Amino acid sequence: MSQSGHQPGRAVPMRVAAGASSLGGLQAVMFDMDGLLVDSEPLWFLAESEVMTRLGGTWAPEDQHALVGGSMPSTIRYLLARAVRPAEPATVARWLIEEMVELVRTRPLPSLPGVLSLLAEVRAAGLPHALVTSSEPAVVDAVLGRLDVRFDVVVCAADVTSAKPDPEGYRLAAAKLGAEPRQCLALEDSPNGVAAAEAAGLRVIAVPSVVPVPERPGRVVLHTLNGVTLAQLRELAGLAL
């Protein structure tokens, strides 16, 4: 959950580390939601700020940045740690989800540059594809309804016992798609999401938002998905036909 820092224009890899050797054909593509599919971070900031106002505290961009790619339980713990007024965790979670759903339905919710074109190309190619997110079902439904897009499989917070950076969500998505994890590609914007996909054995292309994604061997980092084609992603991830 973070405000987009993408640069428009041609897609140039920031860094393609050594070790991204060919691993066979691409079987499936998986997309993160917040900060990758949609620029929802400004809305999360507003929702978190509103909840913190109810709790009597203050909220700043650095607080939001600390929660990028995290789960609802970790967000609630963080909010309550900064609260002045006491509240039950379940109540705070309800406030945050209700506020976010309302904002998604009523405020601008732009997709990130290039991502919908890429999703359409993946769909046209007949590649299985999934949305893998730590967001709650009500928020996911609101986002997908607003964009009017569909995925073969959606894995969200309600489907797993451990959120990102745990690999459970990506492993579940691969199993539901009937794909071998090492022949799947994940598109992520946060360190938590990248760590989850890599731990599940997927190839990962990171498109960071406000939180940098550290480099490591075999990891591809892009400034933007604007203008990036499916063929280019296959090549960058070492998953060409």
Distance between the first and last residues' Cα: 33 Å
Shape: globular
Major beta sheet, specifics? 7 strands, mixed
Would you list the SSEs in sequence order as H and E? EEHHHHHEHEHEHEEH
Count of domain modules: 2
The CATH architecture assignment of the largest domain turns out to be 3-Layer(aba) Sandwich
Q: Poorly predicted ranges (pLDDT <50, ≥5 residues)?
A: 1-23
Number of helices in the DSSP assignment: 9
Describe this structure in words.
This protein is globular. Helix 1 packs across helix 4 (89-106) and helix 4 runs parallel beside helix 6 (137-147). The chain has a seven-stranded mixed sheet, sandwiched between helices. The chain has two domains: 13-39 and 110-237, Rossmann fold, CATH 3.40.50; 41-106, DNA polymerase, domain 1 (Orthogonal Bundle). Helix 6 links the parallel strand 3 (129-132) and strand 4. The longest helix has 18 residues, at 89-106. The protein is of the alpha/beta class and 241 residues long. It has nine helices and seven strands. The protein has helices at residues 41-54, 61-65, 72-82, 89-106, 115-124, 137-147, 168-177, 191-199, 230-237, and strands spanning 13-16, 28-31, 129-132, 153-155, 184-188, 203-206, 220-222.
Topology readout:
Elements: E1 13-16, E2 28-31, H1 41-54, H2 61-65, H3 72-82, H4 89-106, H5 115-124, E3 129-132, H6 137-147, E4 153-155, H7 168-177, E5 184-188, H8 191-199, E6 203-206, E7 220-222, H9 230-237
Parallel strand pairs: 2-3, 2-5, 3-4, 5-6, 6-7
Antiparallel strand pairs: 1-7
